[in-house]
């Protein structure tokens, strides 16, 4: 089992999923490929460790199909050329640990590149990131939006992936619609690529330590007290559901500045009652009362009063049956 600490996003250079030291991680079986099997399609951003590309991979194993595929879209995170041996070692170590996270609703590492520049190859949704898919669907379908039942399936897939991480005591630290991709058969997979993507820079807040944090999605105790755990992810999940049910048309609390969002976190901290002065996101017009009630539970002031992802998944499964 992979254990996690409560800490802030940004402690790791390579992923929002912060990782504790483990022994013998390199014994995990993962394919290694040469860089010539990757064709760069687009540079999507940079991290402090290096750069991130959308690529087409040739002849590598596909987690979705369980077979070798001629071509498939992938995300490749690469180190800068000439980085220290220590950084290379830490990078490869963390990638080996991430490779052990295997679930149909979580993007997986499909290969490592152990030649300059060192890199890790992640699967990517064939239909792109979830916000773009939702917005483009209406444009390409004569102004017809995705159905409410389909949106429910999307948020159930996300809950399923997060339930898996929760079962391993892993906190995501950056759960949002931008960190979900759409795969074959409209399967949603949770990823953590967005913080490296230029297109999502405006959805992050740069704090006094020059660290990008997903302020508008974070639980108040994560912002003010640095508590990063699965219960903080549940808060972010409620916000992600709100995004999806409003068709990703705007960021959460779009009428508030970052400073006002920080002040709202302070209201949560100081309020005697969870709904005293603190503000929550409004009820989406497409959302049932039962589902919105679940979302507000995700935003409970006290972490122990929030549901688990297992609870959320069971609740959503019941809604989908009905």
From TrEMBL:
* One term under GO cellular component: plasma membrane
Binding of ATP, residues:
178
Q: Which keywords fit this entry according to its UniProt record?
A: ATP-binding, Magnesium, Metal-binding, Nucleotide-binding
One of the Pfam families matching this protein, by short name: PK_Tyr_Ser-Thr
Where are the catalytic residues? 174
Detail which positions bind Mg(2+). 179, 192
In Swiss-Prot or TrEMBL terms, this protein is called Protein kinase domain-containing protein
């Amino acid at each position: 089992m992979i254990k996690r600490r409560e800490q802030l996003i940004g402690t790791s250079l390579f992923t929002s999923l912060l990782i504790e030291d483990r022994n013998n991680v390199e014994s995990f079986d993962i394919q290694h490929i040469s860089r010539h099997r990757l064709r760069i399609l687009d540079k999507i951003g940079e991290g402090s460790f290096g750069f991130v590309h959308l690529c087409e991979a040739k002849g590598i194993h596909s987690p979705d199909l369980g077979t070798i595929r001629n071509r498939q879209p992938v995300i490749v995170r690469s180190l800068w050329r000439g980085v220290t041996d220590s950084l290379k070692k830490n990078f490869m170590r963390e990638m080996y640990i991430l490779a052990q996270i295997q679930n149909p609703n979580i993007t997986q590492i499909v290969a490592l590149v152990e030649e300059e520049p060192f890199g890790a190859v992640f699967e990517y949704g064939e239909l792109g990131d979830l916000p773009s898919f939702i917005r483009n669907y209406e444009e390409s379908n004569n102004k017809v939006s995705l159905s409410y039942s389909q949106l429910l399936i999307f948020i159930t897939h996300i809950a399923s992936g997060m339930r898996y991480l929760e079962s391993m005591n892993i906190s995501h630290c950056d759960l949002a619609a931008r960190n979900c991709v759409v795969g074959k058969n409209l399967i949603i997979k949770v990823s953590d690529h967005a913080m490296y993507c230029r297109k999502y820079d405006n959805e992050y807040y740069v704090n006094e330590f020059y660290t990008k944090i997903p302020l508008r999605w974070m639980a108040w105790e994560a912002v003010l007290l640095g508590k990063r755990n699965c219960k903080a992810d549940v808060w972010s999940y409620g916000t992600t559901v709100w995004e999806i049910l409003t068709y990703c048309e705007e960021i959460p609390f779009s009428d508030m500045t970052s400073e006002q969002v920080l002040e709202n976190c302070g209201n949560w901290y100081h309020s005697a009652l969870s709904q005293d002065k603190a503000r929550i996101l409004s009820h989406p017009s497409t959302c049932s009362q039962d589902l919105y009630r679940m979302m507000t539970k995700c935003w409970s002031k006290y972490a122990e009063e929030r549901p688990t992802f297992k609870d959320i998944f069971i609740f959503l499964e019941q809604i989908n049956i009905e």
